[in-house]
Amino acid sequence: MILDETTLRKLKQLSLVASRIRAGAIKGERRSTRRGSSVEFADYRNYAPGDDLRRLDWNLFARLEKPFIKLLEEEEDLAVHILVDGSTSMGWGSEEMHKFRYALRVCAAISTIALSSGDNLTVALLSDGKIRGQYGPVRGQQHLIPMFKFIEAQTSNGKTALGAGINEYQRSNHRPGMVFLISDLLSREDWPATLRQLLSQGHECILIHLLAPDEIDPPLSGDLRLVDSETGQGQEVSLDAGLRQLYRNQLQTWRDEIQKSCYKKGVQYLFTSTAHPWDQLVTLNFRQAGIVR
């Protein structure tokens, strides 16, 4: 399985934090921040597989021998959208350093948190400017195993075209919520404009920028022919210490520009390398950024 049992138990104790909770389609496990909301008891409903057992009224269960979930006033479910870049460039790296494998594990971790909290989850793989695969929208822990199987079946191929892919996802009329975009951002498209559209529709956006260690500091030297993995176009280069330093400087400038642009738009930006343990990214860095608690 893509996540081990120990990690699963840790993730199920977490919940996503949205600064602007959107009205849910059904009553959920998340408390609304709207003015006048209350944490007063409102009603009971029958227990359904996947419900959080912490919400079970054990006293009532002891008396009636039937499980009931306690509902509080103004509780709403949160829509969670995870968009994963499934293009060929994400297929770089080996074993634990493989970008796409890393991205899928982060996707599975966020999905576990969402489903365990009663949130409404949709996962989509993007490449060639379209949705190559989608799971959801679903709600409840009974979807964990099918969701894992969906994620594990995905492969990386095609061109990035993030902007077009996100636009297609938007046209599916998904309700506003938290949008996680996981990508290496190796796209020539104006994908920042697409993020602005998501924000204008009421979404909260978290951008997870993912690169492999040898993309950050290439272990190369000499006369080389570099080939674009998505277009097949080649470029002859003579790589020496000076050119490698120039590359590192340009890469840092690129990352700084992305971070600055995200800050101005109100998008949370997290950069990570596949050398950084993916579970620490979710359980530690997400917590430090206020994305989970």
The CATH architecture of the largest domain is: 3-Layer(aba) Sandwich
CATH class value of the largest domain: Alpha Beta
Integer average pLDDT: 85
Task: Compute the CA-based radius of gyration.
Answer: 21 Å
Distance between the termini: 25 Å
**What is the percentage of strand-forming residues?**
15-25%
Shape: elongated
- Helix percent reads 25-40%
Topology:
Elements: H1 5-11, E1 30-31, E2 41-46, H2 58-64, E3 68-72, E4 75-76, E5 79-85, H3 99-116, E6 120-127, E7 130-138, H4 144-152, H5 162-170, E8 178-183, H6 191-200, E9 204-211, H7 213-216, E10 222-227, E11 234-239, H8 241-265, E12 268-273, H9 278-288
Parallel strand pairs: 5-6, 5-8, 8-9, 9-12
Antiparallel strand pairs: 1-4, 2-3, 6-7, 10-11
Description:
- With 293 residues, the protein is α/β, with parallel strands linked by helices.
- It folds into two domains: 38-73, no CATH class; 77-288, Rossmann fold (3-Layer(aba) Sandwich), CATH 3.40.50.
- The chain contains nine helices and twelve strands.
- The protein has helices at 5-11, 58-64, 99-116, 144-152, 162-170, 191-200, 213-216, 241-265, 278-288; strands at 30-31, 41-46, 68-72, 75-76, 79-85, 120-127, 130-138, 178-183, 204-211, 222-227, 234-239, 268-273.
- Helix 3 packs antiparallel against helix 4, helix 3 packs across helix 9 (278-288) and helix 5 (162-170) runs parallel beside helix 6.
- It is elongated.
- Residues 31-38 have low confidence and may be disordered.
